[in-house]
TrEMBL record:
Keyword Electron transport: no
InterPro entries to which the protein is assigned, alphabetical: Amidase, Amidase_dom, AS_sf
Name of this protein: Aspartyl-tRNA(Asn)/glutamyl-tRNA(Gln) amidotransferase subunit A
Keyword Cytoplasm assigned: no
GO terms of molecular function: transferase activity
UniProt keyword terms in alphabetical order: Transferase
Pfam families (alphabetical): Amidase
Gene3D superfamilies membership: Amidase signature (AS) domain (3.90.1300.10)
Domain Amidase: 69-463
Amino acid sequence: MSSVAINAFTAARERLAAQVIDPPEARPAYEVFGPPPAPVPALGALPSTGAIAGAARALDAGVTTSVALTELALQRIAKDDWTAFVHVDAQAALAEARARDAELRAGRRRGPLHGVPVSVKDVIHVGGMPTRCGSDAFHQRPEADAAAVDLWRAAGAVILGKTSTHEFALGVTSPQARNPHDPTRIPGGSSGGSAIAVATGMGFASLGTDTRASIRVPAALCGVVGLKPTYETVPTRGVVPLSWTMDHVAVMAAGVEDAALALDALRPDAPAIAPAVGARVSHLRVGLATAAWEGAEAVVEAAVARQVDKLDGLVAAVRETDRPTAADFGGANAMGLLVSRCEAATFHRAAGLDRSLYWAEVRDQLDAADGVPATDYIDAQRYRSALREEMLAVFREHHVLAMPTAPVLAPPVERADEYLTILSRNAILWSFVGFPAISLPCPTDGLPVGLQLVAGPGGEALLIALAAALTEKAGGA
């Protein structure tokens, strides 16, 4: 990296640390939202509605119907003790399910999600449903679907409702919701409701966004699969923006193939990635990003290490790599926060909303970002361009990088603010440079742990092939 970029990064990071990262007025989230609901049922083994491909076979064979699948999902939503959903339209969902069943009887299958009940994060417009972005200050009821919702409907999906989000998607905790594996802990964010919905069988997949870490962190903390594609490969029209240069529409599902099918439906003109399930991976070179293990909790380190050990015999080579360095992760976090918060502040200034109604920690982030000099924003973008080129060089040596998705387990709600930086540290870099990444669960007897696999731009099929092979070897789905 050039000395100009290094100096720019250093100056901007110092300003950001002083102005944005630690807002002095923010109240702890648990003081705002209170303790978890009581009583909260013990889950044991979390229920699942089954794989999307399996549902498709059952629907085609007449073993089940879209109405039956939708009714089951709605029954589970009715027992939602974790604040997964903020809006459900049961009548509309059942009407859609009946229409999908009628189409199947007539011999018409729309696509890979035909008749499958799904959910949508509440920063993405669904026609006729409210969009609140998790905020008391934002009220819209759009007539039209977002482009991604249009694509899912075109593939046959049945929309159940909207899932909860950290306010305006501007955080990684979703403190108003609860982790279904332990309701005293956060689900992660900002797509926390989507992760809960998938983990508890309230539908087969969920449509969310990932600007900094918002799909992969909650997927890791709730034990599901989160898949973020290459930047700008899924349209963002109809998504309330957080950061227009970092926003990604992304998916969560219970398994790797499900996530691939869900993403394929969003990219109908791109080569399908679901067929990569079962593809050969013996030629792949996998790099272990050693800096991503720094500060990892012992249980996370052990779970990820066990999963990484299973790469032996699957791929051509597994080698430690010193890039990204700790400075790369730290720089991407600092600059990614600066860019995303400045861009968010621009949107919120134009929107003219009543910031007194915002969560304190969100308001303070935006207020501080309003004061960041334009030169710092420009320097951050220059740093980003240089970092992207350096990461492209890493993927000329390795097909895929592996690392913990989050170095820590889901923290208790009352301590979540202590973990903001480390929760997203390993994830922001890949949104910042726009590379595809997937988080998949590691087998564990305790709280969920996620393994993150990353590829170069356009490498989604590589990720699916390796994630599926690794999951199969580990005995998962």
